[in-house]
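S2.1 Query sequence (Catalase-related peroxidase)
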Amino acid sequence: MGAVAGIAAVDVGGFAYAGGWLRPGALTPPRFTDRFEQVYGRHEGFRRNHAKGLSAVGTFASTGAGAAVCRAGVFRPGSVPVIGRFSLSGGLPDQPDMPTTVRGLGLLFQGPGGEQWRTAMINIPVFPDSTPQGFYDRLLASKPLPETGKPDPAKMAAFLDRHPETVAAMKVIKGASPSAGFADSTFYGLNAFRFTNAAGATVPVRWAAVPQEAAAAPAAQAGKDYLFDDLIHAIAQRPLSWRLLLTIGEPSDPTHDATQPWPSPRRTIEAGTITVTGVQTEAPGNARDVNFDPLVLPDGITASDDPLLAARSAVYARSFTRRAEEPKRPSEVDVSRVLR
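Output structure tokens follow.
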């Protein structure tokens, strides 16, 4: 139960009614956004989930191999600029860094001709919920009680009893121990998409960003922001890189359910290298104001039948609209403070 509660805010935004698979009126983007505020409080100017974060810039150098399955310009040989954001799940912009808190990496690939590809990844191999309603219900079940700081055991047990898919996903997640920091984390796209190449052939794809950084020694956990501080120090010394791996699904692999891993092994393509060359305190003009909407896709990539995708897009938009209209407070993660 504790592990489930620890990833209650997994993903990069939230999920809600979008598209008609839920009973009309049962769940809407405003209601879902309200639930984040109910659980974490209202923190004006910040994202409702993954509120604590750090902006980044870099490049994506394509090997050209991805063009075998996708005609998007970003997969042609060459390099394109990237805007990124490292984050922790949860709606508290000043939460203390913890080794078990889910870490996020959002990326905006600036492809040729103004084409964009946006993705929001996290460092767990599957998602705990298969539907927007499941995530919505788990979020409330995971809300800490004031007197204990932990979820109500009865509510969490009742939720898990109704959601065996979450129980199964948690077993997979528990089997993948988190790395020491951001630099050596593997980030997963989780949801399936459909890639189409220049010849018109379409295949299901999931992707992951796999670190080239060697596994680090466990961090000392000195300080409230130690995960971000370590990342800032590392990038001040050298760029950090991740290999972008595309996993090609078979016809029998589920594309509608992010709780289910695809069987191993599956064919993979090393599409290129994501290199982060710098990080920035969140401010106007950088990733602070980017909505990492997973349905901002280039020609050659389309959404699968996963119901979470349209839902994520809908709630990301609602969260973005709210914070855009609110006054801003300084980010907890301050690059200049760390590098003094």
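The chain has a mean pLDDT of 90. The domain at 41-125+176-339 is CATH 2.40.180.10 (Catalase HpII,  Chain A, domain 1).
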